[in-house]
Amino acid sequence: MPNVVVVGAQWGDEGKGKVVDLLTEHAQVVVRFQGGNNAGHTLVVGGVKTVLHLIPSGILHQGKTCVIGNGTVIDPAVLLKEIDALRARGFLSDPAQLMISDHAHVIFPWHKHLDILREKRRGATAIGTTGRGIGPAYEDKVARNGIRVRDLLNETRLRRRVKERLAAVGDELGMLARLARAEEPLLSEDEIVKEYLAHGNRLREFVGDGSLFLAEKVRKGARILFEGAQGTLLDVDHGTYPYVTSSNTVAGQAAVGSGLGPTVLDRVMGISKAYTTRVGGGPFPTELDDALGERLRKIGDEFGATTGRPRRCGWLDVVVLRYAARVNGLWGLALTKLDVLSGLESLKICTGYLLDGVEVTELPGDLEDLERVKPIYEELPGWVDRLSTARTLEDLPEAARKYVRRVEELCGVPVVCVSVGAERGETILLQNPFRT
Predict the structure, then answer these.
(1) Which of 7, 170, 256, 386: disulfide with 228, CB 3.0–4.6 Å?
(2) 0.90 surpassed by pTM
(3) Among 62, 63, 65, 68, which residue's Cα sits nearest to residue 80?
(4) Which pLDDT score is estimated for 305?
(5) Could you tell me what percent of the chain has a pLDDT over 70?
(6) Cis amide linkage into residue 375, ω under 30° from 0
(7) Tens digit of each residue's pLDDT (9 = 90 or more) over 278-314
(8) Are 126 and 281 in contact (CB under 8 A)?
(9) In angstroms, what is the C-alpha Rg of the chain?
(10) % helix / strand / coil in the chain, to the nearest 5?
(11) So which residues are the catalytic ones?
(12) Contact yes or no for 348/379 (Cβ under 8 A)
């Protein structure tokens, strides 16, 4: 049976959590392979809203194993808060349902302070990070200065490494605080070691060799679902750099971030809203900075699950989708929030750009070029019907069906799933990626 990767095909917030939750029914294992608690995956089941930042979205299904892979960066306090909240609701009663890779890196207080102070220092040129310490934690990892989950289980090793890092970052924190006219953070080695040892002791029952565990599942023929965070255009290599996250968000990272070889990845499913959103700074060719953009924001509840920040909203951009299809090798596309477009007389899809008067149909690699482009739109009729009761494509009004099919034609990838509401059941699954 195929192993499936789910990735965002825009700038994040596409509805990956709902799709992963839906597909978990057909998988035995769900793996989160990159990012940290800068992501927020929202699930609505039985009218109850659940927001997960680190634990894979499959955790709401009994009998499934969720793995937090080595490619993630983990804030232990946030993770423990999620665990406690889930257990209070009757989930995660069996510790075997969650595994945390001992190779995953850990976010410490200095990472958060560096993140916040650097953004303050940038002022108008701020990237728009969540301030959760994700970027600085990945910096330490790449610089070979990181502290991993396994280190939380050994007091001698943890103390030595915390002491080393505090000595190294102290001067930078002081300088940034002065430049940003902020109070210099005071960090205590003893307090940090005590706090993180306590975190490690609570997490110990979940910690293990994620790569070895997953390899054994592959050998036994288990179906594995790999859950990405953020979106393709936020990838540190392939996104709208420098307005990106600090990890690789594309499908190839599923192998690296879980400790498996790329040959175990069979199908890649991209997730896209029926319109486009992004959070933070950076170019956004189809942005609607008007009443229509505000309407999409309000009806679509476009506020960050992690930060609460309002998302920028605009028309669907298939130049972006074609790019995502290329760099991820998309097998199929899930189109979410189609219901948000109900009630509009006409809809627009961006099919290309004008760059200095010349039409281009591929995403410019130069940020300054992308900031200058003008979208070329194709207009389609809208519809007034509510879509939440639709369970087949034929249940949709004709204009909505035409919209879905036109998206499919323009991006060159079949639409295999359509979301028509926030609830798990408000979904039209046209092709199941786990079925051969």
Answers:
(1) 7
(2) yes
(3) 68
(4) 67
(5) 99
(6) no
(7) 998 899 999 999 999 999 999 999 987 667 789 999 9
(8) yes
(9) 22
(10) 40, 20, 40
(11) 13, 41
(12) yes
